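During data preparation, a discrete fold description was generated, as reproduced here:
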Amino acid sequence: MSSKNWSDRVIKQFYHTLDSDITESLSDEQKRGIEDAVKSMGLVARHSIDIRETVPWFGKRFYFVFLCGRDHRKQVRERSKLVHFIITLLVLVGVVSIFLLAVLALYLIKSALGIDIFKGFSFGIWDWFKGLFI
């Protein structure tokens, strides 16, 4: 379905749910303004990445949605302090995870090259890692 057909359907549904007296009282300029506002709200948006999946888990079904695309809205959406906290927490967890993976990779490279920083001391990660692949 093309984006044009989709937006026409949403706008047609909007006018259908609106009281007919109000619809008739609107000028053409007002109707264009309403249609532009409905389009900019994202109700008719197509996303370049649109993943919608359901996952069964312990007898129940859960869904997740991942959308990504260009923001066509004219106004910037304000975010609450909770959203800022969650985004900060996710970024922090991501940075710490990448750091720990980099340290692990460097440790494994050091161990593979046979470099001992402290004589007679090992975390045992290299032995465990070798055991996985040998």
The chain has a mean pLDDT of 83. Strands lie at 49-57, 60-68.
